[in-house]
Specification:
Number of domains: 2
Distance between the termini: 43 Å
CATH superfamily of the largest domain: Type I PLP-dependent aspartate aminotransferase-like (Major domain)
CATH architecture of the largest domain: 3-Layer(aba) Sandwich
Helix content: 25-40%
Radius of gyration: 22 Å
Strand order of the largest sheet: 4-10-9-8-7-5-6
Largest sheet: 7 strands, mixed
Strand content: 15-25%
Structural class: alpha/beta
Order of helices and strands: HEEEHHHEHEHEHHEHEHEEHHHEEHEEEH
Mean pLDDT: 96
Length: 453
């Protein structure tokens, strides 16, 4: 029996009613990608309040790598509920926080001594990484990248690249943030080609120190090993090694934002491992908590100890329920073949998507690492003009036919895959069938419109 089961038009009557209530109660600034309301989730599927069942290729924007409501995670949370809910670790600490910090220090890249602090969200983790880097280096500057996304708080908005809808109307932002082009090979800022470019975009950092900000004023360079909201852009294999060597040459720290790329998404526990790098500070969140809010900042011990006693923390940071869930998630990655599965799913997606690229000019680029895959949609493969409207139509077709997808990219023309890694081959193919049908339908409609014109 197929996983997708639709019993009403999408959205159904109960979802429509909830949308009407939402419009009166919730500000419009909180958008949502689909008009359905979830009642239940398991593994790789969601069920809405009208009884319709969908395959989930969004995974809570990367929070469900280990699957929705995994038994081990649910049991760990239930067990913690029987003990205590909250004490505030800064007042009366608890063992699970320490144990989870020890685990994070063990599993993150780098053989050096590390320390970890927990906070509530990815944006909060990035904020603390910046604080720690500035405290350690005694420098103010932070270099971030074009097409980066690091969060929605004021400091992280300064680091984030995409203007609409994230930054427009919220200025001014914190200062001492400088932006440089990323290794976006499909749309190279320097009109070069890899590998003949000799990683010009990475080496251009030296020019930035001469023309934009002095190297002795820069505390850290922050980057997502694979851009998330920016469009699932994976740089060439040697890019980060060159970049980090330049950073360390000038006493600059490298912060890896692994909020979306971490916890098995790319076929390694952390994408940094795919690039053979050891970040000075590594930031994680999303799938760390197995569905509960939790984020971490892990780094070299001497760097993490730079802030004064009491300089880091938060009332709910490292909540005991979230710590229990995260420990269960790490156990799942030790017991199960989720990393292998991520690579299998990536290969499965690539085979289908490469075929789409040959059949339909709208599919401009197919890219990704492991289970972190995407297609970039364009008006033509020659011009690469973004097909933003068509992307919106494809995602709508998908949810109307039982597949939850989300977009990405500075031009909102990328469809990204964040499917829970526990999805079966049959479910994966079922979802890809819907996506393929969506592309075919939109391309057919586009062709019909072109003929009319």
């Amino acid at each position: 029996m197929p996983t997708i089961q639709l019993h009403t038009p999408i959205p159904g009557p109960k979802s429509k009613a909830l949308s009407e209530r939402r419009a009166k109660a919730v500000p419009r600034g909180l958008s949502h990608g689909t008009p359905i309301y979830v009642a239940k989730a398991e593994g790789a599927w969601l069920e809405d309040v009208d009884g319709n069942r969908y395959l989930d290729f969004a995974g809570g924007i990367g929070c469900a790598n280990a699957g929705h409501r995994r038994d081990a995670v649910v049991e760990a949370v239930k067990d913690q509920l029987d003990h205590f809910l909250h004490t505030c670790v800064q007042v009366t600490p608890y063992e699970s926080y320490v144990r989870l910090a020890e685990r994070m220090n063990e599993v993150t890249p780098g053989t050096f001594a590390k320390k970890t602090i927990f906070v509530n969200s990815g944006a909060e983790a990035v904020e603390n990484a910046v604080k720690i880097a500035r405290a350690y280096t005694k420098r103010p500057g932070i270099i971030a990248f074009e097409d980066a996304f690091h969060g929605r708080t004021m400091m992280t908005l300064a680091l984030t690249s995409k203007t609409h809808p994230y930054k427009a109307g919220f200025a001014p932002f914190p200062g001492e943030v400088y932006r440089v082009p990323f290794a976006y090979c499909y749309r190279c800022s320097y009109s070069m080609k890899y590998p003949s470019c000799d990683l010009y975009c990475a080496r251009h950092l030296e020019d930035t120190f001469k023309r934009v900000v002095a190297n002795e004023e820069v505390a850290a360079v922050i980057a997502e090993p694979v851009l998330g909201e920016g469009g699932f852009i994976a740089p060439p294999p040697d890019y980060f090694k060159v970049l980090i060597d330049l950073c360390h040459k000038h006493g600059i720290l490298f912060i890896a934002d692994e909020i979306q790329s971490g916890f098995g998404r790319t076929g390694a526990l952390f994408a940094s491992e795919r690039y053979g790098i050891e970040p000075d500070i590594l930031v994680t969140a999303k799938s760390l908590g197995g569905g509960l809010p939790l984020a971490a900042v892990t780094g070299r011990a001497e760097i993490m100890d730079a802030p004064a006693v009491g300089g880091l923390g938060g009332t709910f940071a490292g909540n005991p329920l979230s710590c229990a869930a995260a420990l269960a998630v790490l156990d799942l990655f030790e017991r199960e073949n989720l990393l292998t599965r991520a690579n299998e799913l990536g290969d499965r997606f690539q085979r289908r998507a490469r075929d789409w690229q040959r059949r339909w000019p709208i599919v401009g680029d197919v890219r990704g690492l492991g289970g972190m895959q995407a297609i970039e949609l364009v008006q033509s493969q020659e011009t690469k003009a973004p097909a933003s409207d068509e992307t919106k139509k494809i995602t709508q077709y998908c949810y109307e036919h039982g597949l939850i997808t989300i977009t990405a990219g500075s031009y909102s023309n990328v469809i990204r895959v964040l499917v829970p890694l526990v999805i079966t081959d049959e479910q994966m193919d079922e979802g890809l069938d819907v996506l393929e049908s969506a592309i075919a339908t939109v391309c057919s409609q586009k062709g019909a419109v072109a003929q009319l014109v």
